[in-house]
């Protein structure tokens, strides 16, 4: 687990190089009793290898897939196979539309049979293939396979549905990823997530050019629930707790409300990277707008509003459920590009391809899952608060490449191109002080433009 102390500690690190290295970091990771990263990497690596094998089997037959994620894939398939219209697809239908090839259900069965050889389990205890065809593919009453459809926004955001004789969609599965941290807008204390199903049904209907319904919570402030899980979250409530009985105080592991500020909605003077509003828990959605909210970082109190476009001196314009759902529906798949190799945007549809990746540098980091709940609920806005970076001086691009290049450029040129002060640039060139990460990127871009790296 990541340690909370700000004191810098010497740590010896083992990585891809044969020799270890030592660095000093704050918040070092303390391995647990059963921590053994090499074994952990083999487990996750094997799962990814199996997914790659599945992708190869599908592409070998000329097929495609709607989405894949970690250990699953939604393969484009129909009873008999054939072409399915799809922008960017490599095939053409008889009427000239771009298309992808759907595999037949029999072809999928044969792929499944091939994976049976990879099963590590006792066949008498766990028969069949390690690759499972999900039960959603079969009619629960008759057991016969039926056609299901998929709308995939990104790898973790997708819905599966049936269509009746009139073409109306009926959801059989929808992911909660990206929405599960929000409270039920009708009843905050309820675990019912039917509101997510309503939202997804609207998304599917719009994709099919069908009528969609207005959601009753569209204009309501989008609020999530989190817990007082660390001293950093507890600290802003010290003044609020003063003078109160213990039973009336905000205590560790109590529930809190958390909301999300709209772009350009932060109060005047607030730093968006270090600003997040939380409040004592309140289950009545009608009271969310009227209560005071506290900034987790500064301890200052603010009001929130769901009207207008900008924040004010003492108020923040927060996102509504409608704002969240609009962002959700048009969320781009950042790791992919369209058929013309243009990175995916909010309006990109059709067959995607992987983007080319260039390794710029190797950075050793600690465990990323220490603060998953806080990241998902929006309490954490910067990577440095999620994981620890273990700098290897032998691979530190700033020290080994950028600083030597900076010393080749006249100081006056650096001042003119960067807008930074003379003192900041001198400290950077001598290595006395490392600039802010944003300024590091700026200076690195300058020396690259000058052809010095």
List keywords for this structure.
6-stranded mixed β-sheet, 4 domains, 453 residues, 19% strand, 4-stranded mixed β-sheet, 21 strands, 25% helix, 11 helices, alpha+beta
What's the story with the biggest beta sheet? 6 strands, mixed
**Biggest sheet, strands in spatial order?**
12-13-14-15-16-17
Low-confidence stretches: none
User: Approximately how much helix is present in the residues?
Assistant: 10-25%
Number of strands: 21
Put simply, the count of helices is 11
Question: What this model shows, in words?
Answer:
With 453 residues, the protein is of the alpha+beta class. Strands 12-13-14-15-16-17 form a 6-stranded mixed β-sheet. Strands 5, 6, 7 and 8 form a 4-stranded mixed β-sheet that branches. Helix 8 (397-406) packs across helix 11. The chain folds into 4 domains: 9-35 and 359-390, no CATH class; 36-144, no CATH class; 223-319, no CATH class; 396-449, no CATH class. The protein contains 11 helices and 21 strands. Strand 9 (149-154) and strand 10 (157-163) form a beta hairpin. The model has no long low-confidence stretch (mean pLDDT 90).
């Amino acid at each position: 687990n990541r340690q909370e102390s700000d004191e810098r500690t010497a740590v010896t690190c083992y990585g891809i190089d044969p020799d270890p290295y030592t660095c000093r970091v704050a918040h070092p990771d303390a391995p647990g009793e059963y921590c053994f990263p090499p074994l952990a990497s083999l487990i996750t690596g094997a799962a990814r290898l199996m997914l790659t094998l599945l992708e190869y089997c599908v592409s070998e037959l000329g097929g495609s897939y709607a989405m894949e994620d970690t250990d699953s894939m939604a393969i484009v398939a129909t009873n008999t196979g054939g072409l399915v219209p799809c922008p960017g697809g490599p095939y053409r239908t008889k009427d000239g539309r771009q298309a992808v090839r759907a595999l037949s259900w029999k072809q999928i069965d044969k792929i499944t049979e091939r994976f049976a050889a990879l099963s590590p389990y006792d066949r008498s205890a766990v028969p069949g293939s390690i690759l499972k065809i999900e039960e959603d593919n079969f009619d629960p009453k008759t057991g016969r396979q039926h056609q299901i459809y998929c709308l995939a926004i990104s790898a973790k955001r997708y819905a599966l549905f049936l269509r009746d004789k009139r073409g109306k969609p009926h959801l059989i599965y929808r992911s909660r990823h990206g929405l599960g941290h929000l409270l039920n807008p009708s009843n905050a204390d309820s675990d019912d997530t039917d509101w997510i199903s309503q939202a997804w049904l609207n998304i599917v209907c719009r994709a099919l050019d069908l009528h969609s319904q207005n959601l009753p919570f569209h204009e309501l402030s989008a609020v999530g629930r989190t817990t007082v899980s660390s001293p950093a979250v507890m600290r802003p409530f010290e003044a609020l707790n003063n003078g109160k009985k213990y039973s009336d105080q905000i205590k560790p592991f109590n529930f809190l409300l958390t909301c999300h500020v709209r772009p350009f909605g932060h109060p005047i003077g607030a730093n968006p990277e270090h600003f997040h509003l939380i409040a004592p828990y309140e289950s009545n959605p009608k009271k969310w707008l009227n209560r005071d909210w506290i900034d987790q970082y500064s301890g200052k109190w603010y009001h929130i509003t769901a009207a207008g476009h900008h924040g004010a001196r003492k108020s923040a314009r927060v996102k509504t459920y409608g704002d969240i759902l609009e962002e959700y529906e048009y969320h781009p798949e950042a790791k992919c590009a369209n058929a013309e190799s243009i990175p995916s945007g909010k309006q990109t549809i059709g067959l995607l391809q992987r983007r080319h990746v260039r390794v710029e540098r190797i950075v050793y980091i600690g465990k990323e899952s220490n603060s998953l709940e806080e990241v998902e609920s929006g309490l954490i806005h910067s990577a440095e608060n999620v994981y620890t970076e273990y700098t290897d001086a032998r691979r530190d691009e700033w020290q080994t490449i950028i600083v030597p290049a900076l010393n080749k450029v006249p100081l006056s040129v650096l001042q003119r191109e960067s807008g930074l002060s003379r003192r900041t640039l001198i400290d950077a060139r001598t290595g006395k002080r490392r600039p802010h990460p944003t300024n590091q990127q700026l200076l690195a871009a300058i020396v690259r433009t000058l052809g010095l790296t």
